[in-house]
Amino acid sequence: MKTSIPSPPPEWAQFQLGPVTIHTYALCILAGIVAAVLITGHRLDRRGVRRGVVLNVALWAVPLGIIGARFYHVFTHVGDYFFPGANLWNVLAIWDGGNALYGSLLGGALGILIACRRTGLRFWAFADALAPALLIAQSLGRFGNYFNHELFGLPTTLPWGLQIEATNAKFPPGLPAGTLFHPLFLYEIIWNLVGVALILFLERRFQLQWGKVLALYLIWYGLGRSWLEAIRIDPTSDGFLGIPANVWASFVAVVIGVVLFIVQSRRHPGVEPSPFTGRDSPAAAGLSSAVVTAGAEAQAQR
Fold first, then answer.
1. What residue ranges are annotated as transmembrane (predicted)?
2. Residues facing residue 276 across a β-bridge
3. Which of 32, 105, 136, 194 could form a disulfide with 141 if both were Cys (CB 3.0 to 4.6 A apart)?
């Protein structure tokens, strides 16, 4: 116990700001969103896209991503929300935890697709700029699970075992108080940050574009998440054939990533001539030709 990871005091999960209750989980998600917007904006700026465009995309992607994340969680944990006497308003209580990453990817992708069509920005260009930023955002968001005393795995005697109080509703029945668990939130943070370094290296080394950076993200995250979900014992998603839904979703992410990488490598072996679609000029996206030229030169120098 002396070398284990203590869970934060339960009162740290929220605090009052006047009449408003601020949930730490929500702040972690917000920090992740801000980080993703800033990083994606910087990466697009290097290709000649003014940073304001990423905000236009975020206005679509963030709300749809949050909606998708919540509904994916609810409908893969049906028994937690729909039972005799259940308070159906809990379906909307995202501040209590339950923000499924795969649902946010689906909802966010729809928002990005809509926004990119409206601004004339190529979907693959934006997705590639976003991919490593997503891993940073997810790492920040996982701290919310830590403050909520959730996302832990099998019991362990390792020095970095996570302390979970026996009174926690998520504590597995039958285990003695003081049992330590694998800190899955920490494992995922480390996995994601290693993924950022690896993806950025491969992107620069092989000049990956046309959705191939996104493909690497899907493969890397899907592999890590499938393993983490396999050893997770706090309430997991409903499943099929005894396999949790999140594990199936991870397998699908890996397959999509592999197929996307192969298909885009064959269709587009080179680099994108422009981050903009052929039917829309940079001017249609509110960009000056000088900025576009500078971005193209910076890209050519990489």
1. 20-41, 53-72, 92-116, 123-141, 180-202, 214-233, 245-263
2. 121
3. 32
DSSP H or E stretch at residue 243: strand 243-244
Q: Do residues 276 and 285 make contact, with C-beta atoms less than 8 angstroms apart?
A: yes
User: What is the arithmetic mean of pLDDT over 37-57?
Assistant: 92
- The residues near 86 (Cβ < 8 Å, ≥ 6 apart) are none
Report yes or no: 105 and 141 within 8 Å, Cβ to Cβ: no
> Parallel, antiparallel, or unpaired: how do β-strands 162-163 and 20-23 relate?
unpaired
- Listed residue (192, 132, 181) closest to 155, CA to CA: 181
Instruction: Give 6-27 pLDDT, tens digit per residue.
Output: 999 999 999 888 899 898 988 9
State the Cα torsion 164-7-133-190 to the nearest 10°: -70
Residue whose pair of structure tokens reads 């005799």 in the numeric block: 84
Q: Cα angle vertex 216, ends 71, 213, to 5°?
A: 100
Residue-wise pLDDT tens digits, 121-177: 999 999 999 999 999 999 999 999 999 998 899 999 999 999 999 999 889 999 999
Domain locations in the chain?
A: 10-300
- Number of neighbours of residue 299 by Cβ within 10 angstroms: 18
The 10s digit of each residue's pLDDT in 191-219 is: 999 999 999 999 999 999 999 999 999 99
Q: Say how many Å lie between the first and final Cα of the chain, rounded.
A: 49
Q: How far apart are CA 296 and CA 267, in angstroms?
A: 21
Nearest to 33 by CA among 149, 130, 150: 130
Which parts are annotated binding residues?
142
Yes or no: say if 154 and 234 are a contact pair by the CB < 8 Å rule: no
CB 97 within 8 A of CB 148: yes
Looking at the chain, how many residues does it have?
302
CA–CA separation, 186 vs 180, rounded Å?
14
pLDDT computed for residue 159 by the predictor: 93
